[in-house]
Design brief:
380 residues, alpha/beta, 13 strands, 15% strand
């Protein structure tokens, strides 16, 4: 904590305009640093703020300023290049691209840079993305990785992907895990939980899946496993639906499971901790993730996890969660049943999951980020 006060800039577009993954990461990063390293000044550069009132996530943070383009014209140009003039004017010493990109030409400005790369799923599984999107993502990430002083990967798996696809020097890539919102660590009282159970008509016993219903997240596997899980246990799915949801619903009808599957959309974020805490088991059979925050949210909620092998989910879930092949519905059902039938195992997984989740606490993440910043500033 003994370093000189710094002026740190962030690409904060997602912090203000995105409610899910990249937005959550951006908000959590800014909050953690502003809270645990209050001596610095933090400048949030964004083309716009969704509400003109002060956004909730900045409440009580005195050392944070919002910076918007001076002209309303060409906001996308400002974010990708014009912003450099503003960074110089504000005497920014280090700029952190929170969502896989950096302004073009920033290397020449002398401002030190760090970029976070969340995943390279569009290169690993190109079939899940349109051609144009894929090319834009790749160009931005490749360009940012080449020009940044240091790169933050959100998991060891993403680091390995960066080395493989972009041929980068491993020394340049630092792994700093993500955290999850502190609200998941707070035990909700029974009255709150029961009120939520009523509001969403949640079954007495259910397994839970949270996340966008898209091909890569592999919800179909859970539907196929459900017929081998006792009939008194339902499945609750919380997430935005894409075309893939139709495929999932067809399977639900085919297996006559309509009474056992509940789909919820547009659930407010503040309701999620109680929903996790009401669940018996959290299932996350995704084929590929950059990190897998819902797994961490489940662990912090004291809910046992069964996830898929093969990406970075073992890093998020730790050694005491269960992992199955993403094509093996029988194994998924077996692991879920094991937890449902054995209270002792369930308690053990809960305790060890909470213990493992300690390493993702906000203060640890803030310190790890600051270590990377210091290293970037020292790079001559």
């Amino acid at each position: 904590m003994n370093h000189q006060p710094l002026k740190i800039g962030f690409d904060a577009k997602r912090a203000f305009l995105n409610k899910t993954g990249l937005g959550n990461y951006s908000r959590a990063t800014i909050q953690a640093l502003a809270k645990h390293f209050p001596q610095n000044e933090y400048f949030l550069y964004t083309p716009k703020v969704r509400t003109e009132t002060e956004p909730d996530f900045l409440r009580g943070l005195e050392n944070v300023q919002i910076k918007k383009p001076q002209s309303n014209l060409l906001k996308s140009f400002w974010r990708s290049k014009g912003i450099i003039q503003d960074l110089k004017r504000d005497k920014i010493q280090l700029y952190h691209g929170l969502s896989q990109e950096l302004p073009i030409g920033i290397k020449k400005s002398g401002i030190k840079t760090v970029v976070t790369i969340h995943d390279l799923i569009y290169l690993k599984y190109p079939q899940y993305f349109g051609w144009i999107n894929r090319k834009i993502y790749e160009w931005k990430a490749r360009n940012a990785s080449a020009n940044a002083d240091l790169i933050i990967a959100v998991s060891e798996k993403t680091k390995l992907d960066l080395i493989a696809f972009f041929n980068l020097n491993p020394e340049k890539i630092k792994v700093v895990y993500q955290g999850c919102d502190p609200s998941f660590r707070q035990t909700q009282n029974d009255a709150v939980k029961e009120a939520l159970r009523k509001r969403y008509q949640l079954p007495q016993k259910f397994i839970l899946n949270i996340g966008t219903i898209e091909t890569r997240k592999n919800l179909l596997l859970v539907i196929k496993a459900l017929k081998n899980i006792p009939a008194e246990v339902s499945l609750v799915v919380v997430g935005k639906q894409t075309e893939y949801a139709e495929l999932v619903k067809k399977e639900v009808v085919k297996e006559a499971l309509q009474k056992r599957v509940l789909f919820l959309q547009n659930v407010p974020f503040q309701d999620l901790p109680a929903i996790y805490q009401l669940a018996e088991v959290f299932v996350y059979p995704s084929r590929y993730e950059g990190f897998g925050i819902p797994i961490l949210e489940a662990l912090c909620s004291g809910t046992p996890v069964v996830a898929a092998k093969g990406s970075c989910l073992e890093e998020a879930g730790g050694p005491d969660s269960f992992y199955v092949d993403p094509d093996d519905a029988v194994a998924l059902a077996e692991k879920v049943n094991l937890i449902l039938q054995n209270d002792q195992l369930k308690s053990k997984m809960k305790a060890q999951g909470l213990e493992y989740a300690q390493r993702f606490r906000e203060e640890n993440i803030a310190q790890n980020l600051m270590n990377v910043y210091q290293q970037a500033l020292q790079n001559a």
